[in-house]
Amino acid sequence: MRLSISWAGLLAVAILAAIAVACAGSAVAPGPASSPTPQASPQIDRGVIAFSMRGNIYTVRSDGSELQRLLEPANEAYSAPAFSPDGGRLAYIVDRKRVVVVDASDISTVLSDIDLYLDRTPPTPIASDFSMGPVAVHWSPDGTMLLVTRQRLGGSGASDVLLMNVSGTELRSLLDAGTFIEATWWRDADGTPLVLVVAADASQTAVTYDLDGSAVGRGLPATATRSAVASLQHPDGSSALIRSALGSPEPFEPIEVEDAEGTSIVAGGCGATWSPDGERFAFYNGFGIALKDPDALPNDVELIVTNADLSIADDASGPREDLCAGLGISWSTNAAVPELGESVSLSVLSYRSFRSEDLGIEFDLPDSWEGGAGNMPYASCFGCLVIGPSGAAPPYGIAIFDTTRDFSGPECGNDFGGCPVMGSFGIRTLTDGEETMLTVAGLPAAQQRMFRQPPLGLTNETGETRNYRDVATAIDTPVGSDLIVLGFYREDDEVGELEVGLAYDALLASVVIVE
Questions:
Q1: Which of 210, 189, 209 is nearest to 197 (CA)?
Q2: Are residues 377 and 270 in the same domain?
Q3: Would you place residue 45 in the very low, low, confident or very high pLDDT band (cuts 50, 70, 90)?
Q4: Which of 332, 359, 392 marks a domain boundary?
Q5: Is position 339 within any domain?
Q6: Paired sense of beta strands 281-284 and 145-152, if any
Q7: How far apart are CA 276 and CA 270, in angstroms?
Q8: pTM exceeds cut of 0.70
Q9: For residue range 359-405, what is the model confidence (pLDDT) as tens digits?
Q10: In what order do the strands lie in the sheet with 288-292?
């Protein structure tokens, strides 16, 4: 098996056109699932929860309605969303390098963009990476400052704590630690804001610091059985919610509540945070975003967003603990999230198992899709399996084919190659993102995203230019060929983009090599 993938294997001789496409792409993040006609409602009644998953940031009402994706990864991944106390602003982390603050009602309005990446690139490839980047951000109770935990990107656990104004000015370092930590805010008995850090040293205790970085006392005692814990103070100050720290190597852990009477395990999961009234907490339990009363039994939860809603397959062996990496949750009563307009409900998509003997694979296919769907209008894919909705106009779907290094070899069977090839028709290809390496079906794979722009005016009947986007994964198979999974949709086709995103992620998560 090859250990590296060359996209040269995607180039092929096209009939009627120049050789074009290095088929490449990254999986489209799952699209928002909301009602076909969003219902307006007072946001103070139900509140809004923001959470990150697989580099995306979503919002959802606390009753599970109006799930929508605010940010999706292209060249960058997003994590650790945090609403300001008044709900008017949203802070999040970009690529573990920058902290960005936006207007929560218009995320295109960037209020600050603060680069906190500390570049300590090693001089040689074999040296350790000592670079540091942010993993968690928390607003001060009055909304004027940001508390940021930064960790070593190489994974040693070294962390530091930064405090700054929302604009990024007056930046100062409060603490350096040799372990995975996450600094949060703590209010003492008279309401003075302090910084709380748990397990910064071998004592595994919770220590409070003033805003100058001097230790002044302790918060509620933290459990001594685990490292990498984060303690979140209850809104009324009476107790603390203890969970794994963001950036922890083992983020899926027991979630505990501690008060003056002691400690109790209330759930298992990651990314937990209190509701604004302190009556419940939200967290990821391996099956989706869940709400829970801390006094209820551990399994007595309300699942408001399922893995299926996000086009993530459940694991038959148990909860999806692997999805905790980069996951953060914030709950606001007053958040004014943007209205993204009318949307199509896609959470109702159901899937069936689909097997292709020719390609030697099996995967999940939406029930409403079928083989032999409309091909990409900007290219021909000879010998491909094209799946998608029948008669979709403009067409959208997924093309799957395998390829070899030698398109002219005898195994192709004829002059043009019985082997699948792709040819473009004067289309200009722009790369949206760098190649990303990953694992699919236990095999090495590469992903990329492309933008197809017709320079000579490939237009429809109204004269509008047909710009397309496609995303693809090249899977390095044991037989020496690349299995290409390419999703395509028209740029302004919201339904196509969302359905392709869901189907594409479901396919990659379920694909099995059967030959």
A1: 209
A2: no
A3: very low
A4: 332
A5: no
A6: unpaired
A7: 18
A8: no
A9: 889 998 888 888 878 778 777 666 688 899 877 877 899 999 887 54
A10: 229-233, 240-244, 253-259, 262-274, 281-284, 288-292, 302-306
